[in-house]
Amino acid sequence: MDELLTRWQRGWSLSRGWTNYTETDHVIAVHAGEPDRQVEFFTTDQYVDRAVRTALAAPHPPGTVRLAVISDNPGVVVPALHPLTVRYTLWVMSTPLADHPRHPIPPEYELHLTSNAGAIHAELRHDGESAATGRIAVCETDAVVDMVQTDGAHRRRGLARALMSALVTEAHRQGATTGILLASTEGQLLYSSLGWIPRHQLVLAGT
Fold first, then answer.
1. Quick one: which of 183, 201, 205, 181 has its CA closest to 71?
2. Fold of the 95-199 domain
3. SS3 136
4. How many helices (H) and strands (E) does the chain have?
5. Fewer CB within 10 Å: N-end or C-end of the chain?
């Protein structure tokens, strides 16, 4: 579990451009420097008590410090996060990229792919306007999916599947073999239908 968390965090940090991170005593600190997210800590449930103390001691304004804990038993983790405020729980999922299904781009949409600092950005456009976007960051043989979004006016048209196919295809072409992502409960249904397997859960809390 420790290894999967580290692999996901490295790709996620690359995708967001938050490459200033450190690890101390099994707690990773990502120094985002954003107004509402100064620092985010990551750990496993084995070290949750230590991570909570670290988050509470962080010299940042209330509401700008986050802590994410990966676990197979979030019901035990949630009470241990007090006095931090639990925000939500996500699923950690992975899949072999070679087995990922391929879905075509609907004919009325155009795919635009760009790369920036190791992250591949995909956008589906309709009549010149953005309809769906997403990123995938390639770190050695891992590809971490991030920020897949579909505009409300274009949902239920298979755009998320088409976008994922495009991202995975390009990441696989660049040498990645394993995909990793975080999914909401709703998103898990989509990704499970594409062959992604839930591995653990991740509880997010904050000051």
1. 201
2. Aminopeptidase (3.40.630)
3. strand
4. 5, 11
5. N
Helix (H), strand (E), coil (C) string for 22-39: EEECCEEEECCCECCECE
DSSP state at residue 153: G
| Local confidence band at 116 (pLDDT 50, 70, 90 cut-offs) | confident
How do residues 13-67 score in pLDDT, each as one tens digit? 999 999 999 999 999 999 999 999 999 999 999 999 999 999 999 999 999 999 9
Position 90, amino acid: L
8 A C-beta contact, residue 11 and residue 144: yes
In the chain, where the domains are located: 2-91, 95-199
Half-sphere exposure of 93 (CA within 13 A, CB side): 23
